[in-house]
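Customer ticket, subject: "Can you confirm the structure for Ribosomal RNA large subunit methyltransferase F?"

Message body: Hello, I'm evaluating your service for our small team and ran a test protein. I'd like someone to confirm that this is what the system normally returns, since I don't have a reference to compare against.
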Amino acid sequence: MPIPPRPAERRPAPVAAGLHPRNRHQGRYDMARLLQANPALRGYLRRTPDGGQSIDFSAPAAVRELNRALLASDYGIAHWNIPDGYLCPPVPGRADYLHGLADLLAGDGGGTIPRGPDVRVLDIGVGANCIYPLLGQAEYGWRFVGSDIDTVALQSARANVQANGLEAQIELRRQHARGRLFDGLLQPGERFHLTLCNPPFHASAREAAQGSQRKLRNLGGGAPSSRGTSPVLNFGGQANELWCTGGEVSFLKRMVRESVAVQAQVLWFSSLVAKSEHLPDLHRQLAKAGAAEVREVAMAQGSKQSRFLAWSFHAPHARRAWLGHG
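Agent reply: Thanks for trying us out. I re-ran your input and got the following:
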């Protein structure tokens, strides 16, 4: 299926609300087009108070079929699946993270977003859904390496890659050292323009379960019909996807510490940060680590406020030289 034309390319300043201007998922869902891409979605439609159509966002199967429709209609990804119980990510929010990263590279490259397979991206914790490599390859033509500690997740991710004929663009690696992120994963001499990550942000299984219950209660009043107002939720999720000892801030501090050792191999490190109260501590950790530049980029979808944190150990002139603009 051909991918629709991209919106007009530009490098906007980060904004506090709304999807990125290049994000394909602005406004209301075009249900007729989505049903054409994935007829199975019809079984999950529901009428909204204003007479429109939406789905039940509290039903994992409905979100999965919506994702399949979005991926097929907007990105040419004809085959996508995840095992039951694994993370089912919201496509619009995941696309926003990639567009924000593209802006980082454009800022170092004279305003032009670098496209094509020469741009290499490392996804820490690629998951069974493999969503970032699939979206990033479709949108920008970037080449990805996705890592995970979960063999079932990697099998699912590999099935998605192979079903779409993307083996040359997306490589998958198992991280054998539990508790490590970059150590033992990067090969000598290889370089990445970007790393990205959606870290586990709960500190325990109990906290993760309580968070899931809060999400379901919040959906009790009904699901809106607009992309801009629909709940931004990750349904399902295995233990390593949802929680780790110490929670999000502990995970990200470890990422910062490990990034020091591989700083020569990466232009920009980055991660989503779910809880804004963690940012001051992370900024202190990055200053201590000697990061040359730190960026905090706001993202939003409806009432959901999010952000990603990016850091580089390379000065501006070195980043320009990396991209061929020195």
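A couple of notes from the result: Residues 257 and 289 are 7 Å apart (CA to CA). Strands lie at 45-47, 53-55, 120-124, 143-148, 170-174, 192-197, 266-272, 293-301, 304-312. Feel free to reply with more questions.
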